[in-house]
Amino acid sequence: MHLSCSRRFPPYRHRDSYPRLDLEPLLRSVDVTCRRERNKFGASYHYSRLVSMSTNSSKSILLILLIVAVTAPLISSSTIRAASVKGNPVPDPGSIHRTFWLEGSAVGNWNQTRPASGPLISANDGDNVTIMYNSVDSYPHTWFIDVNGNNVPDAGEISDPTVANSATFVNFTFALKVGTNIPSTGDFTYKCSVHPAMMFGTFRVQASTAPDFKIGLSSSSLTVVTGSSRSVMVTITGLNSFYGTVSLDSTVYPSGPQVSISSASLTVSSTSPISSNVNVSAASSGTYSTSVPQGSYIVTITGTSGSLVHSATLSVTIGSPSGVGGPSSLALIGGGIAAGLAVVAATVYALRRRTRMKTL
Ligand SMILES: [Cu+2]
């Protein structure tokens, strides 16, 4: 043991960064060497470096690491075995990365659960899932989720083609995302593609328990007359005890209409939804009073809170005051009346002619 820094040099700089009280227990097992160095401004400071653990402590740390390495897989697999016997394990909320250990056996099913199916695997939407699988019978095994039940890994199904044919575990990690690589929440069947009828179990997908928010609009489409403006409501709803501030932003494609949001940030502090007004204006703007071209636009309202980003889209149609994309109903009525009058006039004319011919 060396207390070289504090003994050789006045411990001003050194003590500043490492309070002596905190360092004391560490120094009993750690050798520290120091040297005096200069930084780029020429100031002198002490540089300490961890050289080695003392022999006794390094031995005991190695022993602890060895025990952890040997027992950790056993603990995990025994937990999953127990869970499969008892039934549905309680999902642990807040856990993001879940690891499952599966020992592959064609005769005994995963984790030797025959005659029952393999261990129940439960994960939440958005979780990172690690499947550690191996072969305890030396037959080749793979792992996949058979969504359509055809016993074959298909494109779009979560699958690892890596063949495990020894006690060495294959590490297969994926991000579980409903609507992306799994169609919905609910129960699916995981299998070995080599022994799909022999090695299978339930893969349960549950809704996310992570705090999140959803964004909604009071209407998905809006028609705005040139020169005027109209509004919809954007609503933020907290999910899974989400409390926080959501900032709102808008984009318009193609550019033209002006979009303004009355409250650009909404703070969710309870379970009730909170709303803001989104105004879409087709008023003339700019120095030369450019009018907004008629046509279709897509307005995207995006809500951001930290790493959580959700958006909603609004289809906007900008039309002329007399109507959008064709004659207005008033024009149609007018046209109808005109056509009717023409028919009446023609009939009256024809009748008069016939009367006149008779008298002749
Ligand atoms: Cu197999």
Structural class: alpha+beta
Overall CATH architecture of the largest domain? Sandwich
- Biggest sheet record: 5 strands, mixed
Query: Which residues sit in consecutive blocks of at least 5 with pLDDT less than 50?
Result: 1-95, 324-337
> What string gives the helices and strands in order?
HHHEEHEEEEEEEEEEEEEEEEEH
Could you tell me the number of beta strands?
19
Number of domains: 3
Q: Any ligands, ions or cofactors bound here, and which?
A: copper (II) ion
CATH topology of the largest domain: Immunoglobulin-like
What does this entry look like structurally?
The radius of gyration is 37 Å and the shape is elongated. The protein has a five-stranded mixed β-sheet. A five-stranded mixed β-sheet has the order 12-19-18-14-16, with no helix packed on it. Strands 11-13-17-15 form a four-stranded antiparallel β-sheet, with no helix packed on it. A hairpin with a 5-residue loop joins strand 1 and strand 2. With 360 residues, the chain is α+β, with helices and mostly antiparallel strands. The N terminus is likely disordered. It folds into three domains: 67 residues; 120 residues, Sandwich (Immunoglobulin-like), CATH 2.60.40; 107 residues, Immunoglobulin-like. It contains five helices and 19 strands. The site of copper (II) ion has 8 residues, from loops.
